[in-house]
Design brief:
heterodimer, A: 197 residues, alpha/beta, Rossmann fold, 6-stranded parallel sheet, globular, B: 185 residues, 6 strands, 42% helix
């Protein structure tokens, strides 16, 4: 029962993950994950969550089912995924081949004062994901692992997949994307070619 | 096959789940999610049998709220089926829908309001309309099977065209008393 040892800088990890993103669609989970995705580069194909804790993977699922020809990536934290842990089971039942989930795992709730999460207290998100029925699961601790995972995102027949990415603890300066939900929604849909009605 | 049979049914009286299904089809609903529920069982079966509706079983109702948001982001219309006991599970996730003005159409079978035998169902049943309204949702009632098409159609327009969160509460009276073959305690 201890904090998982991660050394990856979360900003560098997410920058690597989103490099040369092509037609990737991204949903970011509440808190630091949203800041990380914004910091990696503003993009209309990003949907940043500022609330809805526990909902990131399910938003990713609904999107992946609606857009089967686009790769969809959910970038979230251990705490956010833990709140919606059942959603991993639901994702697995649908086996969306174009959906990938990256869990930035530092074993702590960064946004609220670094309290230990269940992951930090011993729960293994990669094992849970496998148990839920997600077969392609990676436990990543270095940039090479992220690059390899990034390459797999383009395979629209290989998902669902989940990567537990071990990041270092510690607070970073916040990078704040727009908070207006209706704007973010319309921008995202516009990116996919849907007109604002 | 179920789908063809459903379209040939006369959607009145006990066929109200078929009327709901046909109305959802008319509105182009492409995703349906649900927590299993006896009152919705026929609609769930129709949905699973329909290859043009992606049907997803949930572990808890708020997953379906988030799923509906994701579907809309991707250009699809979704509907969420649940029982009144599940409404409480959705409260915070409804913030997502109001903050982003995402459409939400949820069809809620009521417990705790008509010939309810289980006292544990009553508190959430009683709180269902106020809970939904407190989170900004519009609440419509479906009390008469013959009104199914009209009410679901109105709710769907309000949701998908009006960008609103809409819950249709389906009367427990319509679903009928829960039948027990043997006395249980």
């Amino acid at each position: 029962m201890s904090v998982p040892v991660g050394t990856l800088d979360r900003r560098a990890a997410v920058k690597t993950l989103l490099a040369d993103r092509g037609d990737l669609l991204v949903v970011s989970g509440l808190g630091s994950s949203t800041y990380d995705v914004f910091d990696a580069g503003e993009h209309p194909g990003n949907f940043y969550l500022w609330g809805a804790m526990g909902g990131a993977a399910m938003i990713g699922l609904g999107l992946a089912l609606a857009q089967p020809k686009r790769p969809v990536l959910v970038v979230t934290g251990d705490g956010e995924q833990l709140m919606g842990i059942g959603s991993l089971l639901t994702v697995a039942t649908k086996q969306p081949a174009n959906l990938s989930i990256a869990v930035l795992d530092n074993g702590q709730y960064g946004e609220t004062g670094m309290q230990l999460s269940h992951s930090g207290l011993g729960a293994k998100l990669d094992v849970i994901a496998r148990g839920a029925g997600i077969d392609d699961v990676a436990d990543i601790a270095d940039i090479a692992g992220i690059e390899s995972f990034r390459a797999s995102l383009r395979d629209l027949k290989g998902g669902p997949r989940l990567a537990r990415i071990r990041i270092a603890t510690g607070e970073l300066e916040r990078a704040l994307p727009p908070r207006d939900g209706a704007y973010l929604k319309n921008r995202f849909r516009g990116h996919l070619g849907f007109a604002v009605t | 096959m179920d789908q063809i049979a459903a379209h040939q049914d006369n959607a009145t009286g006990r066929d109200w789940p078929v009327a709901i299904y046909r109305t959802l089809k008319d509105f182009g609903v492409a995703q349906l999610s649900y927590v299993p529920d006896a009152g919705h069982s026929r609609l769930i079966k129709l949905s699973h049998a329909d290859a043009s509706i992606k049907t997803t079983v949930l572990t808890t109702e708020e997953e379906g709220v988030a799923l509906s948001a994701g579907a809309w982001l991707g250009g699809e219309r979704a509907v969420l089926l649940m029982q009144s006991s599940g409404v409480g599970n959705c409260i915070n996730m409804l913030s997502l829908m109001t903050s982003c003005r995402f459409p939400l159409l949820t069809l809620v079978t009521m417990r705790g309001e008509w010939a309810e035998f289980n006292p544990w169902q009553i508190p959430m049943g009683k709180a269902t309309p106020t809970t939904l309204e407190a989170m900004g949702a519009t609440v419509l009632r479906l009390d008469n099977p013959d009104d199914a098409e009209e009410v679901i159609s109105a709710a769907a327009s309000l949701a998908y065209d009006g960008d609103q969160q809409v819950a249709v509460l389906i009367s427990q009276r319509m679903i009928g008393r829960k039948k027990w073959t043997t006395e249980t305690h």
